[in-house]
């Protein structure tokens, strides 16, 4: 079963939220300003390009520091009311109780994706990987961002590695038209509205490869 993360499983955009938090901790008031300027600049870009530029903000950051910061962010923020969207979390738990494996598919900052996947018992965390030079992040991604068609590719690659799984039996959950390439890769697709309600996606609806 495949789940997008931001505004599908959790009620916020984890990457920008983490960026503001991390930059404030590491750079103080200047970090708050820099994070705000970067996020404003990304707002008008195509989602895949914005995703790549977002990750370049972490160029030179020690990978171990980024991973520790992601765990701290999750520990502090996941306690808040509304962090998880209850209906989607219930669906994830129901699929797991029925014996299904869960995969989170997201373009969020990869250490965040790993932490959230671990917390909800997801077997797979599907997204781009962070390039490293020794212990430091280069700010570049290995592979395309998990945005639009990138999510579909990740889903299909996982299914190809597990030929015993019939895509027609799988479910996928997303919140944005850019999730449609992923949703249309399986037999049962669900669109999550801002209020958390779920709507079944028609199997032959027109999709888009934009966004994330």
TrEMBL record:
GO terms for molecular function: hydrolase activity; metal ion binding. Keywords: Hydrolase, Magnesium, Metal-binding. The keyword tRNA processing does not apply. PANTHER family: PHOSPHATASE RV3661-RELATED, PHOSPHOSERINE PHOSPHATASE. It comes from the Bacteria. Belongs to the HAD-like hydrolase superfamily. SerB family. InterPro entries: HAD-like_SerB (IPR050582), HAD-like_sf (IPR036412), HAD_hydro_SerB1 (IPR006385), HAD_sf (IPR023214). This is HAD-IB family hydrolase.
